[in-house]
Amino acid sequence: MKSKLSKEKLINMLRLMYKIRYFEKKAKEFYTQRLITGALHSYVGEEVIAVGTCVNLKKDDYVVSTHRGHGHCIAKGGDVKRMLAEIMGKKTGYSRGRGGSMHLFDKEIGFLGGNGVVGAGLPISLGAAFSAKYRNSNQVAVCFFGEGASTQGTFHESLNIAGLWKLPLIFICENNLYAVTTPVSENVSIPNVGDRACAYGIPGKTINGQDVLKVYETVYEAVQRARNNQGPSLIECKTYRYNPHCMVIKETRPEKEIKRWKEKDPIIHFEKKLLKEKVITSNDSEKMKIEIEKEIEEAEAFANKSSYPDVESFKKEISVF
Amino acid sequence: MREIRYVDALNEALREEMGRDKNIFLIGEDIGPLGGTFGVSRGLYDKFEKKRVRQTPISESAIIGTAVGAAMTGLRPIAEIMYIDFITTAMDQVVNQAAKLSFMSGGQFKLPLVIRTQEGSGTREAAQHTQSLEAWFVHTPGLKIAVPSTPYDAKGLLKTSIRDEGPVIFIEHKFLYDKRGGVPEEEYLIPLGKAEIKTKGNDLTVVATSLMVYKVLEVAEEISNEINIEVIDPRTLVPLDIETILKSVEKTGKLLVVHEACTRGGIGAEIVREVAEKAFDYLDAPPRVLGGLNTPIPYSSSLESICVPQKEDIIRAVREITK
């Protein structure tokens, strides 16, 4: 079952991918300027997965994210102003500066947060999906995690239970080929994480995570299954991050390999496709980029002028502990 | 007042709260037809919709994780961890997730969940089924910890814990389930953070938790002609009603804390710290903690009981501190 994508949807996908990329560019810039001083994990290179997945979701569907979650938050409909403010530790941020880059939450859009512990989101996503089923709400939950998380025990517990209880849950494994610096060949005992699904009696797929339409279609089917009470799915998206694991870890991957992945950049590829198929004109595309840049600039201004959280209200807040 | 068993008081609390709020559900191992290894959820699987008594595989991380995710999305889970020893396999979900996500989300999400479990030794189950681990959770900001000792407290505190907006670790003791005590038929709640003075006295303040409350009360009774002991059960460790303890120490000038958990790094040390910092001038003797020995609990019957405070140990400590 495939969905025919409208022109609006295709353009929206391109817009979201650029928005993530521009946001990450700004975050990196702020980090080098010491305006952002904490942990920062860039999603650049993997934008396709968040976008191809989240455009299938409704506002009240749930997303459980990771330490590398900026892209998930934007794709789910997060507010870049509050995101940037949070990452800068400002009180106008999503969590009033309590969470930071790895812990973006937005209750209004069912965004259940990033996580600083690899693999910790998997059991939490069970709860969101269980809750949807319990309340008969027809919501679904998506759990993003990396191939590095697939080697945690929580992966096994969660896929077993999701399969057992037929939860409306889509596991999206973003296999970017490296767990920090350890290559997947030293991490995962089989070539494809998607193949693990059969052990839990659920459908599993391994797809090109650099092809946004492929991600969209595959997740579309999984979401339909979940909404129709047919249970969970596991989708492994092969991808690549353009930056090292985080800002403080130095690059260990072969230069040639990085170059090779960048040469087939999925956003540029998708944009070219839309141009070629006359879904957009180059004018549209330029206009879109200017609009996104402006939105990011507005977020920058908002975050910059926001103040840091005040100590007094923090002390009051923690007195309940 | 009618007298019922501790286990039945807990069961009543679950039954009443589940009847009151359809968003409350139970999740844990063997809680279905069996009603839990210790029988706390007995009969609930038949009484309520199946989804409300969710029996799980042996997957503690997933049990707590499911509770966390469900609590974030509108439900009020009550998770059962069969033995507190097994919570170790779910520590990330308890310590990094349940305790922190409300805070880390800037308060956007509440986590109204209860983790019920039981601890304590005396069953010859060796060192992985007998620990008393409450202090670990006391050391984790974001969790509340209840340690009810009587059927009355068990019911009242469980109902309050279920209605609380934050995660509560609710720690029972395997030798408390059969204890009988007065529990009113009508509804009541006990606030978290309110200690109970079990007996009044002027010579010595003894703070005791969980099963130790009974042992200390027996001692207080036995030597009441000789030494007049004020026994306090804090009932919850977070929040801790230190005011009641301080007030008592200001009167008696002496403090002994008795708990089953090993002495080193235990809640007793924390209570002594509070008293030393806030009531030092009232103290007539060094405050003391009588806890378990610093050892994994051994299997053999000849060894197990000597590892946790017994009546004679308490009497000895009481005499030493008041002499």
Would you give an account of this structure?
The complex is a heterodimer of chains A (321) and B (323). Chain A has one domain (7-307): Thiamin diphosphate (ThDP)-binding fold, Pyr/PP domains (Rossmann fold, 3-Layer(aba) Sandwich). Chain A is 45% helix and 10% strand. Chain A has 11 helices and 7 strands. In chain A, the strands form 2 sheets. Chain A has a 5-stranded parallel sheet, with helices on both faces. The model of chain A has no long low-confidence stretch (mean pLDDT 97). Chain B has a 7-stranded mixed sheet, sandwiched between helices. Chain B folds into 2 domains: 3-182, Rossmann fold; 196-322, Rossmann fold (3-Layer(aba) Sandwich), CATH 3.40.50.920.
In the CATH classification, which architecture of chain A applies?
3-Layer(aba) Sandwich
Global structural class of chain B: alpha/beta
Backbone CA Rg of chain A: 19 Å
Silhouette of chain B: globular
- How helical, in percent, are the residues of chain B? 25-40%
> What is the overall shape of chain A?
globular
What's the helix count of chain A? Answer: 11
How many beta-strand runs of chain B? 14
CATH class designation of chain A: Alpha Beta
CATH fold-level name of chain A: Rossmann fold
The CATH architecture assignment of the largest domain in chain B turns out to be 3-Layer(aba) Sandwich
